[in-house]
Design goal:
There is one protein chain. By secondary structure, the protein is mostly helical. Helix content is 73%, strand content 0%. The chain contains eleven helices and no strands. Helix 4 runs antiparallel to helix 5, helix 4 runs parallel beside helix 11 and helix 9 packs parallel to helix 10. It is elongated and about 75 Å long. It starts with a helix and ends in a 5-residue tail after the last helix.
């Protein structure tokens, strides 16, 4: 009888050990998941992320290969095709599918080719302001002292300049306003927000235990910034950059609409919207379709940014 009791006790002990080991392994596996792993897991289940990603992929495909979607020329006009005529909505994908503009150019072809200018401006400006603002904010937040004070005051000076008004003044200095000139004008004034976001994130991260441990082990400043601080301070910057990208596309269209951004022969939605205002009483389609494309593009990037923000912020889960 005692042997049976000992056997049962030993079996129960083994089960308890096995259970505890499984629990411990589960806990370790759970702890091993990083912030980025959790974020990706949440994003894959977010319908807003899926819809916005598909739309953005489609826009990038149009910008990269516009000839796949139309064979019509966006700059060749045919005055025989009067812009007052109704769009040929039944002939999907043809030059006259969405009608013609005042100069007899295909509205559909200009929508397709205008995607490239907007996407290039949005992505390039976002990359430049993220790099410049990120480096400025990281240096200011990590070193502090007079370096932080100096960089913060410079940032405040640029931040005090109205964004669109400042871009207008900068663009007036150039005789020819190409895509890259517009990119420079927007990036010249747009880096301040990224600098502030990165500075705040670095100030929070630099007091973490792993940073102090790296310093105690003799790690250099560059290694600490690149290997320890930057990966853990990038989350808010990525969120702001994703949302801001749509704003830069909208800013380019606004400047082009006012006649201070892109101009013909460059194909741009802002240029077409400006031209469509002249015929708004008789041919609303000239203004309507580029406005819809611009709104969908900006909305897609804002939805993507919101999805990323919800995934990277633990308090919103």
């Amino acid at each position: 009888m005692p042997d049976v009791t000992k056997t049962a006790t030993a079996a129960a002990t083994e089960d308890a050990v096995a259970t505890s080991s499984v629990d411990v392994s589960d806990i370790k596996a759970e702890k091993a998941r990083s912030l980025w792993g959790d974020a990706w897991s949440d994003l894959r289940r977010n319908p807003y992320f899926i819809v916005s990603s598909v739309l953005i992929f489609f826009l990038l495909l149009i910008a990269a290969f516009p000839s796949l979607f139309t064979s019509a020329s966006p700059t060749t006009g045919d005055l025989v095709r009067h812009y007052v005529g109704k769009p040929e909505l039944g002939d999907v994908g043809s030059a006259g599918w969405l009608g013609y503009d005042i100069q007899g150019r295909s509205v559909y072809a200009r929508l397709i080719y205008g995607t490239r200018a907007s996407i290039i401006v949005g992505i390039c400006v976002t990359l430049i302001v993220t790099v410049v603002g990120g480096i400025t904010g990281m240096i200011a937040g990590y070193f502090g002292g007079w370096i932080d004070a100096l960089m913060s005051r410079i940032t405040d000076i640029f931040f005090g300049i109205p964004f669109l008004l400042g871009a207008m003044v900068v663009l007036q200095a150039f005789v020819e306003r190409t895509v890259w000139v517009v990119v420079f004008a927007l990036a010249f004034l747009g880096w301040t927000q990224m600098a502030r976001v990165m500075r705040g994130a670095v100030i929070t991260v630099k007091h973490a235990d792993y940073v102090h441990a790296a310093k105690a082990l003799g790690a250099g400043t560059s290694r600490i910034l690149i290997r320890h601080i930057l990966p853990n301070a990038m989350a808010p910057v990525i969120v702001v950059a994703t949302i801001a990208l749509g704003g830069y596309i909208s800013a380019e269209a606004t400047l082009s609409y006012l006649g201070l951004g892109l101009a013909s022969p460059t194909v741009s939605w802002g240029v077409d919207i400006s031209a469509g205002v002249q015929a708004i009483r008789t041919s609303q389609h000239i203004l309507l379709y580029p406005s819809i494309m611009l709104s969908l593009t900006v909305l897609a990037f804002i939805m993507l940014g919101e999805a990323v923000r919800n995934a990277l912020d633990p308090k919103l889960r």
